[in-house]
């Protein structure tokens, strides 16, 4: 996503294994940044509609991909 002031990149990936201990980066060391917890939701329309997913453009793309069974297909532009 691009605007006049910023560019944000989003990636879709399948996670084979997950390790909280192996996460790295400055955001995990900053005491005042809060918690970075994993919240699992079903990858369904009901699951996505049950959370406040931001930005809305990504939520829209995911809902469309789930609705047309194209999630995981080639990259989608928006």
Please explain how this structure is put together.
- It contains 3 helices and no strands.
- The chain has 78 residues and is an all-alpha fold.
- It is globular.
- The mean pLDDT is 79.
Which series of helices and strands comes N to C? Answer: HHH
Which regions are unreliable across 5 or more consecutive residues at pLDDT < 50?
none
Q: What amount of the residues lies in strands?
A: under 5%
The total count of helices amounts to 3
Mean pLDDT: 79
Rounded to the nearest angstrom, the distance between the terminal CA atoms is 7 Å
Net shape? globular
Beta-strand segment tally: 0
SS-derived structural category:
mainly alpha
- Using only C-alpha atoms, the radius of gyration works out to 15 Å
Largest sheet: none
Helix coverage percent of residues? 25-40%
Question: What's a quick, concise take on this entry?
Answer:
It is built from 3 helices and no strands.
């Amino acid at each position: 996503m691009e605007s006049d002031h910023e560019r944000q990149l989003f990636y879709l990936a399948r996670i084979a294994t997950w390790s909280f201990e192996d996460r790295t980066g400055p955001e995990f060391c900053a005491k005042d940044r809060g918690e970075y917890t994993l919240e699992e939701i079903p990858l369904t329309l009901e699951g996505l509609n049950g959370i406040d997913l931001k930005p809305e453009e990504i939520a829209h793309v995911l809902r469309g991909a789930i609705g047309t069974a194209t999630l995981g297909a080639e990259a989608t532009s928006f």
